Amino acid sequence: MAEQSLKDIGPVVLVGAGKMGLAMARGWIAGGLPPDRLVLVDPFAGEPAQAFAQETGARLLKSADGVLTHVLVLAVKPQNMIPVLQQVLPVVGKHTLVISIAAGISLHTLAAGLDTERVVRAMPNTPAQLGKGITGAVGLSVSEADQEVANLLLRAAGDVAWFEAETMIDAVTAVSGSGPAYVFYMVEALAVAAMRQGFDPAQAMHFARQTIIGAAALLEADDAPASQLRENVTSPKGTTAAALSVLMAADGLEPLMERAVRAARHRSEELGRG
Question: Closest Cα partner for 186 from 215, 166, 164, 162?
Answer without folding.
Answer: 215
